[in-house]
Amino acid sequence: MLEDMECCGVKEFHGMSGTPKDVLMNISGDKYHRYDEEEFAYVVFTDLARRTLGDRLSKYITNHNLGTMYNIRTRKNPNSGNKIKMWIWSLNNSKLKTWWYKHGGKKLSKSDFW
């Protein structure tokens, strides 16, 4: 699920599960499934350092030329004690949109809401 941040050009993705494709369908669905397509430049996401989904998602995004990934080094979360990693994804919006439709994404129209 994508969440707003103070800056309208950045979204935070949380609730990461499944495969990298599942995660990207979720993110691009939040972005492109709406009739009033939302624009933003970056997505931030985190994962436990011992899990691999964040790493696999970062590689998938890079391998499919869906944008540029910035991997932030592992740090200890002072609240939980867990080691976490963070990624910042600079979206290539045109390639992500093409990827979304290629993988079965559908855009809603205003009439779907009324």
Our estimate of the beta-strand percent is 25-35%
Succession of helices and strands: EEHEHEEH
Please identify the structural class as seen in this structure. Answer: alpha+beta
The CATH class is Alpha Beta
Q: Give the assembly state of these chains.
A: single chain
**What does the main sheet amount to?**
5 strands, mixed
Based on CA atoms alone, the radius of gyration comes out at: 15 Å
Low-pLDDT windows of residues: none
Number of helices: 3
Distance between the termini: 24 Å
- Average pLDDT rating: 85
- The number of distinct structural domains comes to 1
Shape: globular
> How much helix, percentage-wise, in residues?
25-40%
The CATH architecture is 2-Layer Sandwich
Characterise the protein shown here:
- This protein has 114 residues and is an alpha+beta fold.
- It has a single domain, classed as Translation Initiation Factor IF3.
- It contains three helices and five strands.
- It has helices at 20-32, 53-63, 93-102, and strands at 2-4, 10-13, 42-48, 67-76, 83-91.
- It has a five-stranded mixed beta sheet with strand order 1-2-3-5-4.
- Strand 2, helix 1 and strand 3 (42-48) form a beta-alpha-beta unit.
- Helix 1 (20-32) crosses helix 2 (53-63).
- The longest helix is centred in the N-terminal third of the chain and has 13 residues, at 20-32.
- The radius of gyration is 15 Å and the shape is globular.
- It starts with a strand and ends in a 12-residue tail after the last helix.
- 16% of the residues are buried.
Set out the fold topology.
Elements: E1 2-4, E2 10-13, H1 20-32, E3 42-48, H2 53-63, E4 67-76, E5 83-91, H3 93-102
Parallel strand pairs: 2-3
Antiparallel strand pairs: 1-2, 3-5, 4-5
Helix pairs in contact: 1-2
